[in-house]
Amino acid sequence: MPRGRNKSCHFCGSDKTIDYKDLRTLKRYLTDRGKIMPRRTTGNCSKHQRDITIAVKRARAIALLPYVKE
Known about the structure:
Layout: H1 23-27, H2 39-42, H3 46-61
Function: Binds as a heterodimer with protein bS6 to the central domain of the 16S rRNA, where it helps stabilize the platform of the 30S subunit.
Organism: Halanaerobium hydrogeniformans (Halanaerobium sp. (strain sapolanicus))
GO biological process, one term: translation
């Protein structure tokens, strides 16, 4: 089975934080339908993937991001 290169977590190597108000960063982790992309696709570690999920859900709850794109 061929192996590709290892994806590294974008947030582990830098001092960036995940904030629900940073919509530009959060939109990178949403599909065109508005779903949160899985960890195996984004390459994030599990800790930061959980933080992204929580931030997206908070942004959706206060109407900064839509639940479903039309």
